[in-house]
Amino acid sequence: MSIFSPVSRDVSSPDSDTASTIRPRGFLHSLGTWSAYVALLLAAISALIVIVIPMATGSHTYTVLTSSMAPKYAPGTLMVVKPAAADSLRVGDVITYQIESGKPAVISHRITAVEATQTGEQVFITKGDNNSLEDAEAVHEVQIKGKLFYAVPYVGFAAHAVGEQRGKILPVVAVGFIALGALSMAKGAIEKNRSKKTDRPSE
Length: 203
Fold this sequence. Notes:
This protein is of the alpha+beta class. It has helices at 14-57, 155-161, 166-199, and strands at 60-63, 78-82, 94-98, 106-116, 122-127, 139-140, 144-152. It has a 7-stranded antiparallel sheet, with helices on one face. Strand 4 (106-116) and strand 5 form a beta hairpin. Mean pLDDT is 79; it is low at 1-5, 7-14 and 18-22.
């Protein structure tokens, strides 16, 4: 009796090896393209919130440096403050005002009361959300820079770091991010087209 030992045969084809090589490459290309889309979207949203809307509405940006308005407006928060008429302000509004009239230093606190002086002038009593006492001095109309429009957490640290030049630097940074995102998208599209041509079977 003859005994034959079974012979194992490699049934895998070159096509399956090629497919397994192509799939990771295609996945990486897709991942890179989607990453570029996300980067571009984030850059556009950041530019819109931090630069475009404030410029379009005539608002000013300020950075929270103390914890007097924490936790809602913690240090590092970027406040976008829109000019507002004094007679439109109400209790509960957050306003930014000069500590001393005509001086650059400002504070952003919440209005807790609206009163009138003996001369009939309207003044505002303010308090930091995290403070136990109201501010010692009433705020006069001439001191008010505006009412809080909206706030963006953490962004203020970067804005404060560039100081007075932020009005010039932030637009450049935003445009740079958008250009980088567009470049990444274009690069991803080109590489995707190349991979399709390379992977196309020859007749």
